[in-house]
Amino acid sequence: MDSTNLDEKFRSVIETVDVANALTAPLTRSIENLLRLAAAEVNSDEGSVIVRDGAGNDLRFLVAVGEVAAKLREVRIPQGKGIAGFVFSSGQPMAVADVGQDANFYAEIDQQTGYSTQTVLATPLRFDGEIIGVLEFVNRIGEPPYAPFTPDEMDKAALFAEAISSLVDAHESAALLESLCAKIAENCEKTDLRKWLATVRTAPSHRELLEIALLVRELSQTGDAERKVCREVLESFVRYAELKTKPESFLSF
Amino acid sequence: MTLLGENLILSEDWKTRTGRGVSVAVIDSGVDIMHPDLSGKLRESVEAVTEGNKVSFVAADGTDAAGHGTACAGIIARIAPDADLYSIKVLGANAAGAGMPFLAGLEYAIKRRFKVVNLSLGTTKPQYVAPLRDLLDRAYTAGCIVVAAANNLPQPSFPSVFSSSLISVVKGEMQNPFEFSFRYGDVIELVAPGINVHTAWTGGGYRQLTGNSFACPQIVGIIALLLEDNPNLTPFQVKSALYAIAQQNLAVA
Lengths: 253, 253
Description:
The complex is a heterodimer. Chain A is built from 9 helices and 6 strands; from the N terminus they run H-H-E-E-H-E-H-E-H-E-E-H-H-H-H. By secondary structure, chain A is α+β, with helices and mostly antiparallel strands. Chain A has a 6-stranded antiparallel β-sheet. In chain A, helix 1 (about 5-15) packs antiparallel against helix 6 and helix 2 (about 25-40) packs antiparallel against helix 6. Chain A is elongated, with a radius of gyration of 24 Å. Chain B has a 9-stranded mixed β-sheet, sandwiched between helices. Chain B has a two-stranded antiparallel sheet with strand order 1-2. In chain B, strand 1 and strand 2 form a beta hairpin. In chain B, helix 1 (about 70-80) packs parallel to helix 4 and helix 2 (about 100-110) runs parallel beside helix 3. The mean pLDDT of chain B is about 90. Classes of the chains: A alpha+beta, B alpha/beta.
């Protein structure tokens, strides 16, 4: 196949898919529906799903329901800041009452949204042992002063967090695929696909990985026994590498 | 005098002790040393600095960005006002990827031979189970009493689910820390006040907090009182004493 055909083929594939939000939008809607249900169960109408913002440990609002939901989506929480930041880094669920007595803590987010936070319930979102976000509810239905969240509501939030975690993980994978598709589409439009692929291929780390992948593919195509041996050898190497990198002590003195 | 075991005699007025001479480490988000409830009670504040797969501890500035560590220290100081508090900050800007600093903080506390360790933190990452078990065993044989907050989430949290080498605490409805109780047939052993606990918060304020995180320091405070008269109690003896007191509390209730 010549390069013009390749470009055209890629473009036609990409054009058949509505790349922007095609994968994440249904998941976002499901998370939002579940969040509304959870908020009703814990007698709150302000709920949010907070996730890691990019590669760092800052946080952003993935989904929010309630009075200031749209504004929250623009807010970023620096690493370790606020109740959500603590719950994300510690994995400990907590409920905090009378936040409004001392404006220090939530001032930044409240200032950006114009909201008045008084009582908070925050639960970590976990997937495969990793903390991937925080499920947070703020204030109660009705007028202040708001009663603190109860232990029973904490337990309910923990159950919803379990279900929402799976959707958030799926959302993260879908977002990755979307960005990859967008990247391909962008490069197709610029008829620069070959150049982009070439940069991927020629980067030393990518090239090495591709070579290993090709070797594994070749070996595993020779038969079941070879595939089994190949897997066992690789798994042994992974275990060896893990042992090798495991520090004898966690302290540097 | 109350006889709790062959060699363990508890004075009737043990509740009037203040924890004098007992070292208590709080492994958390730091402690606000300027808080009026904690002024002059912190003997040392250190924080984790991660470089590669090594963690070192440097002098900290005595602040707490999250509030959680201050809340735990405030609870301990209220029960045992003369205990020597040590803050080991493992959560915050310099401790990204909480697992390693968390383990290193525990190792640091054991090496420093702090008598009681408040661990209102946990992890669900399976790769930390083995090193945590090892550290907890080292703490046990070193006579370092580790008290951990349980988790109310569906997935197990480590180390609170370890049964032998530490004391695990869950929140209960009672308000008085001396009225703690115990649970049978579960890895969670003790039940202490953890619902709407009024305690110190960063910035000189106070919060009303709910969570197992705040039940844990109640037991830490109680242990500091027990150790004032009996500084050489081993973790096993402390557990036995706590069990006997909890049994008496239940009988009274």
